[in-house]
Amino acid sequence: MAGILVLIGSPRREGNSAALAAAVVRGARAAGVEADSAFIDDHVAGFLRDCRRCRGPDGACTIGDGYRRLFFERFLPAAGVVFCTPIYWYGMSAQTKAFFDRSFCYYAASFPGSAEVIAAMSRKRIGLAIASEETYPGAALGIVHQVQEYARYTRSAFVGVVRGVGNSRGEVARDPAGPLAEAERLGRELLTRPYTDYHIDTPRRGRVWGDADQSAPPCGPAT
Predict the structure, then answer these.
(1) 45 vs 48: CA distance, rounded Å
(2) pTM given for the model
(3) Per the structure, how many domains does the chain have?
(4) Looking at the structure, do residues 107 and 48 belong to the same domain, yes or no?
């Protein structure tokens, strides 16, 4: 796919992370963008191991679950990816973290196709949707920072963050901040929302919003 993949890091099929993910997919499809979602734990059955011990003679990962297919057939071809995770102990879920960790098997130099994997991992559009029970703003900062650094490391554009508050299944819909609407908007705009990441030597325009030739670059860090 060349559209958007939404990865759900919660084990709850009707939970608040899943509700946020469904809203992202709705928004993307309303904008005419191909979008799909996946529960990570349908594909990942184990954590990263010592690649020096378990990598096969051909350099392939020998962990026998569905991660490779999810990673190669759905994640790498996607132009944009939205990670949806609950807050567990002030961090992302173990399923979400395992997805990031397991990618090492394929971008490490010991994998024969690592150069192609790195190229496909890079310069994506990245979004984040977080579900939590508490409203404390700092509860989500660790997750935001980790995804921010992942985006920086892969030269991707970290487009936006949505956070919804709720505990019982689907309760996020009652959050007066309207996170489901914001998640739909993130889905609609993930591939088109203006994105800038200034450095001290970045050429600056006179204003942020204006005519087409004065708008922000559509993708990637500014250089």
Answers:
(1) 10
(2) 0.88
(3) 2
(4) yes
